[in-house]
Amino acid sequence: MEFKSLKNIETSFKQIRIIAIVFVVLCAGITGYAVWNSFSFAEAQRQKIYVLDEGKSLMLALSQDLSQNRPVEAREHVKRFHELFFTLSPDKSAIESNINRALFLVDKSAFKYYQDMQEKGYYNRIISGNINQIIQIDSVACNLDAYPYKTTVYAKQMIIRASNVTERSLVTRCDLRNSVRSDNNPHGFIMERFEIIENRDLRTIDR
User: Fold this and answer.
1) How many Å apart are CA 99 and CA 189, to the nearest integer?
2) What confidence tier does 49 reach under pLDDT thresholds 50, 70, 90?
3) Domain that holds residue 46
4) Which of 5, 12, 134, 204 has its CA 20 to 30 A from that of 153?
5) Among 15, 34, 61, where does a domain finish?
């Protein structure tokens, strides 16, 4: 009878141990889930921006992941360079200002084109002939699947003279690399190996 009693006590201890282990595991699981859920909630709250409109209304705006907006910034960076580099007016200071701003967005490959056109007197002819040059970007094809990003720009140049307007096809390509954001380079890209692969007259319209 005494042996059976001891056996029952031992079995009871085993059951208590099993129940205690299960209880500890459940407590650890619940605690881990609560901590994970808290971090997830805190991260979601950090993605929200509350804007107070002159103390009258509270608006909620969701902040976007930077990587989601990167393709748009890449195309805008390239587009901005072309607008600065190829939009010319018969004003020396305006030309130099635009070119200098454009060169912050690209490596020395574009500066070589600038030097070449300057040596050939292209900018002097723009000024002396009172010519305006405007660029219209048709499309910017940017492949962000491989780094550096291969980019091709299709555009038209309008050469506006007093007597006529010449429409010119312009196609360029370059590589895009990530860079540090700054006031002169707000999108955080740098263009490399810039190359003009097509620049030909399409038609001339008399005015």
Assistant:
1) 17
2) low
3) 2-61
4) 204
5) 61
